[in-house]
UniProtKB/TrEMBL annotation:
PROSITE patterns xref list: RESPONSE_REGULATORY (PS50110)
Function: Member of the two-component regulatory system RegB/RegA. Involved in transactivating anaerobic expression of the photosynthetic apparatus. It is a transcriptional regulator that is responsible for activating expression of the puf, puh, and puc operons in response to a decrease in oxygen tension.
Pfam families: Response_reg
Domain Response regulatory residues, every copy: 13-127
CDD domains, alphabetized: REC_RegA-like
Protein name (record): Photosynthetic apparatus regulatory protein RegA
Alphabetic keyword roster: Activator, DNA-binding, Phosphoprotein, Transcription, Transcription regulation, Two-component regulatory system
Top-level lineage group: Bacteria
4-aspartylphosphate modifications at: 62
A biological-process GO annotation: phosphorelay signal transduction system
InterPro entries: ActR_PrrA_rreg, Bact_response_regulator, CheY-like_superfamily, Sig_transdc_resp-reg_receiver
Molecular-function GO term, any one: DNA binding
Gene this protein is translated from: regA
SUPFAM superfamilies on file: CheY-like
Length: 183
């Protein structure tokens, strides 16, 4: 075990940044039960303020926050504490954002819904460990639905523009958007 891992073992400070208040509090309580000293932040500004005041050893940062992009918090963490182990968490899983998160210093990228066990495993995994496949991965229908929702949001909820970018008929897209998300 190198000295970096030894230091992180003693310092169990954890910053959770998410704009979903209920999820944030639930995950915070679960991580406290696992021995972490948890600080909560509900957005980019609050996350950066917490990093400036007391840089944590661990962090879980939601990618899409109401007041900006969670990657801004990841960059602030890397500047303040380069040894911080950061997991990026998001409801909109995409390869491009996963690559961006890892390039700026995140050690892992988890799609919501991730539970406290998934988060703990990601935070404490050794660098040489390969991630364990999820017990209940998203179905292909759910992955498709998530992708359509992400493109729809990126197009500012414009159905015609989203249909054009996804190369599908506008009415087909409207029917998909009107349905509930698949499991």
């Amino acid at each position: 075990m190198d000295s970096e891992e030894l230091d992180l073992g003693r310092d169990r400070s954890l910053l959770l940044v998410d704009d979903d208040d209920a999820f944030l509090k639930r995950l915070g309580k679960a991580m406290e039960k696992r021995g972490f000293a948890v600080q909560l932040a509900e957005g980019v500004a609050a996350g950066k303020a917490e990093v400036a005041q007391n840089p944590p050893a661990y962090a879980v940062v939601d990618l899409r926050l109401e007041d900006g992009n969670g990657l801004d918090v990841v960059e602030a963490l890397r500047e303040s504490r380069p040894d911080c182990r950061i997991v990026v968490l998001t409801g909109y899983g995409a390869i491009a954002t996963a690559v961006a998160a890892v390039k700026i210093g995140a050690i892992d990228y988890l799609s919501k819904p991730a539970d406290a066990t998934d988060v703990t495993n990601a935070l404490l995994a050794r660098r040489s460990d390969h991630p364990v496949p999820p017990e209940n991965p998203m179905s292909a229908d759910r992955v498709r639905w998530e992708h359509i929702q992400r493109v729809y949001e990126l197009c500012d909820r414009n159905v015609s523009e989203t249909a054009r970018r996804l190369n599908m008929h506008r009415r087909t897209l409207q029917r998909i958007l009107a349905k509930r998300s698949p499991k």
